[in-house]
Design brief:
This protein has 87 residues and is of the alpha+beta class. The protein has one domain: Alpha-Beta Plaits (2-Layer Sandwich), CATH 3.30.70.930. Helices cover 37% and strands 33% of the residues. It is built from two helices and four strands; from the N terminus they run βαββαβ. β2 and β3 form a beta hairpin. 15% of the residues are buried.
Length: 87
Amino acid sequence: MQVVIEITLYPLHNDYIAAVDDLLARLNAQSEVAVTTNRVSTILHGEYVQAMTLVQKVIPEIHEKWGEGAFVLKILPGAERSINGYS
């Protein structure tokens, strides 16, 4: 099953740009899930298990390195790659 996941990180400290850059680098370092970044969020598209595994991997890594932060996720299971602006 295909999935679209929109993820946004709101670091709760002053070095927020470095934390967001680190998240983006980790998401883009793999090739199984398509990653598209816009001004306010990042869109992941791929097979459900691979996309969720990636999210489950990077959230603890970012938390461990950067401390407190809020992750906001929208998960659209069964979604095609382009759906109402998610492309």
